[in-house]
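Quick start: read one record
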Amino acid sequence: MAMYRKLGKTSSQRKALLRNQVTALLYHGKIITTEARAKEIRKIAEKLIALGVKEKDNFEEVEVTCKVAKKENGKRVKETKVINGVEKKVTVYDEVKKTIKKDKPSKLHARRQMLKVLYDVTEVPSKAQGRKAGTKQADLANKIFDEYGTKYAKRNGGYTRIVKIGQRKGDGAMEVLIELV
């Protein structure tokens, strides 16, 4: 018996297809696909969620000081300084203390393992449809650690569900809905 399904694709096409569908499943929570693909997606998605559950609390909070540009009316405050005999306008900075989450080595490794599989997701607000302005990158690894890690903390596997929908009209392939439980 084979260890995985080939899905009628070359290895690079298959890997890209599975990465794309796993990313969509973890971002949206559910997708519709064929039964064979869903069974392969399930393997990958469950491993990623299990990593997120295992490493969700493996960080330390560190207080850092950073420089932030001083602003008035939405614009940076500048002051004139003499540098090497020349007057220049220089931005004024304030020092601010912030508390950040710093991953411990095993969580960092888990995050990199996730990013090896997941594609980047760009969130586009409905107002800015078709424009680059206003878009931002979604951090799926953080979503897995924070949202899914806490949601499935008490669950031992079985994070996905496959529900049969029916046969596809074009080729008769069994379509299924794969969703996070």
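The chain is about 35% helix and 35% strand.
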